[in-house]
Amino acid sequence: MARARSDSPLLFEIVERPDFSFETKAMAEGLWPVAGMDEAGRGPLAGPVVAAAVVLDPANIPDGLDDSKRLSHLQREALFLKILGSALGVSMASVSAEGIDGSNILKASLEAMRRALVGLSVQPKLALADGRDVPPGLPCAGRALIKGDQRSQSIAAASIVAKVMRDRMMCGCGSHHAQYGFEVHMGYATVRHRTAIEVHGPVARLHRASFAPFRLGGTEVLDEEGLAGLD
Predict the structure, then answer these.
(1) Is the dihedral of CA 9, 11, 15, 20 positive or negative?
(2) Among 15, 41, 45, 77, fewest CB within 10 Å belongs to which?
(3) What are the b/e assignments for 45-77, b being 16+ CB within 10 Å?
(4) What are phi and psi of 49, to 5 degrees?
């Protein structure tokens, strides 16, 4: 007999917040230090994919760590400084638009995470990666956690660091290519960005030529001097 479903609405939405339980369990198993890894910038039409690896201090975890997408700009900036000031290790790495075009966005994202982990000043025994895949070539054991930035504080910290650093990089691109508004949309496919591409064309080594609309539309990519041609 089928079980009747309630038609009563929930009084409130239960929002899962990251905690330190995965790290604590690993410590009990002798796997310490534990690093969290995450990336920012898989979806945009322009700019690098940026990753971070963070080893938190269990005795000094900043309050408010969460998935960077659920935080405001000001919250991310404040937590970014707290993470840098309290963590046992923080490392960042990126793969450029050219590197993304040379492989694919998934491989580039995993490679950026691997580079970030290798760059840590402390050698972790376990790396927790956000998503479904463990980056290949890690110097330690790895574990993938789906929605890890909403479950693990270490991954949440890495997501904040990666997001803040990528946003700062795109703001720098905006100062050199004012007509595109990178400092506003961070390279995502907003109406303003797509319109700028239609008017001015994409920029070589900054726009991802393997992404639509470039690949599908056959749009020429402009180099830094405004000359047409694909690199």
Answers:
(1) negative
(2) 15
(3) bbbbbbbbbbbbeeeebbeebbbbeebeeeebe
(4) -95, 130
| CA gap 41, 4 in Å, rounded | 43
The band of 226, judged by pLDDT with boundaries at 50, 70 and 90, is very low
What's the pLDDT at 10? 55
CA–centroid distance for 74 within its chain: 17
Nearest alpha-carbon partner for 92 in 167, 171, 188: 167
Rounded Cα–Cα distance for residues 227 and 211 (Å): 20
Annotated binding site: 38-39, 130
Task: Specify burial of residue 218 (Cβ count, 10 A radius: 0-12, 13-18, 19+).
Answer: exposed
> Which residue positions form the known binding site for a divalent metal cation?
38-39, 130
Tally of CB atoms within 10 A around 230: 12
List the structure tokens of 128.
């927790």
Decide: residue 210, CB within 10 A, 0-12 exposed, 13-18 middle, 19+ buried: middle
Residue 35: Cβ within 10 Å count: 34
Write out pLDDT tens, residues 96-114: 999 999 999 999 999 999 9
For residues 160 and 212, what is the distance between their CA atoms, to the nearest angstrom? 27
Confidence of residue 4 (pLDDT cuts 50, 70, 90): low
Q: Which two tokens stand for residue 99?
A: 């590197």
Neighbours of 206 (CB within 10 A): 24
Confirm if 193 and 214 have CB atoms less than 8 A apart: no
